[in-house]
Amino acid sequence: MTLRDAAASRALRQETEADQEDRNLAEILQELRVLQTGTQVLAGFLLTLPFQSRFTDLSGPQTLLFVLAMSLAVLTVLLLVTPVAVHRALFQRQLKARIVQVSHTMVRVGLVTLGLSVVSMFALILALVVGTTAAVLGAGLVGTLAGLLWMAWPVLLRRPAPHLAAHHDHPDDPGSTP
C-alpha cells in the first residue's frame, strides 16, 4: 500500500493514522494465527517421519525430497514466528507501522516457503505411494494451484470489476457502492 493509498483508506474509514496502524497490526496478527497453526502441524508431521519404521526404505532422491520439505517447513515456521519476536522486541516503542511492514514481508516470504514445503511434501508422499511420475505431476499441479490461488488471484482481485469501478468508494472493498 502506498502512502497515498493509506491516506485515502484512513479518510474513507474516518480513522487516524494510529487507528489504521492498530487495525493493520490486528489483521496481520489474525492471519499469522491461521498460518502458524497449519505450518507448525506440517513441520511437526515432517519432523516425526525419520522415527517411522519405513523411513529407512526411502531412496536417495526421496530422502533429499524429505530433507527439502522438512527444511522448508522449519524455515516457514521461523519466518511466521518472526513477526511475533519483532513485536515483542519493539513493543511500546511507537514503531507499530514498522512492525506491520516487517510482518507483511515475513508473511509474504513465509507463504512462498510454505507453498514450496507443501509441494515437496506432496511429491514425497506421491513418490512413496504411487511412483516418481505421479510425484512430478502432482507436485507440478499443487505448485501451480498454490501460485494461482496465493499469488495470481489476489493480484486480479486488486482491480475492481469493470461494472463496479464507477461506484468504487472503499479501497479495501472493491464491491462496495455509495
Quick description:
This protein has 178 residues and is mainly alpha-helical.
Number of strands: 0
Q: What proportion strand? A: under 5%
Level of helix content? over 70%
Q: How many strands, what sense, and barrel or not for the largest sheet? A: none
Radius of gyration: 20 Å
Structural class: mainly alpha
Which shape, going by the Cα principal axes? elongated
Q: How far apart, in Å, are the first and last alpha carbons?
A: 23 Å
The ordered string of helix (H) and strand (E) elements is HHHHHH
Please tell me the overall pLDDT.
85
Low-pLDDT stretches: 174-178
Give me the number of helical elements.
6
Whole-number tally of structural domains = 1
How does this model look, in words?
Mean pLDDT is 85; it is low at 174-178. This protein is mainly alpha-helical and 178 residues long. The chain has one domain. 78% of the residues lie in helices and 0% in strands. The chain contains six helices and no strands. The longest helix is centred in the middle third of the chain and has 34 residues, at 96-129.
Keywords:
6 helices; mainly alpha; 178 residues; single chain; 78% helix
Layout of SSEs?
Elements: H1 3-13, H2 17-48, H3 60-90, H4 96-129, H5 132-158, H6 162-165
